[in-house]
Amino acid sequence: MTDAARDVVLTTRATLVRNLDGMRFPPCLPGRPDDDEARRTQERVEEAFLRANLRGEYARLPLDCLKAWEISALAERGLVDRRLAQRGVEGRAALVRRDQRLCACVNDGDHLRMHAVWPGLAPEAAYRAVSGLDAALGETLDYAFDGEYGYLTADPAEAGTGLRVRVRMHLPALLRGGQTPLARPLCEELRVGLSRVRDGDMVELTNVAGMGMSEAEILETVTTAAHRIVARERQAREAMLLSDKESLEQALAEALREAATAQTLRFEHFQTCWSTLRLSVVAGILPHTLDAMDALYLSAQPGHLGLRAGAFLEDDSRQTALAELLRATLDETDETYKTLNL
Question: For position 105, what pLDDT does the model report?
Answer without folding.
Answer: 93
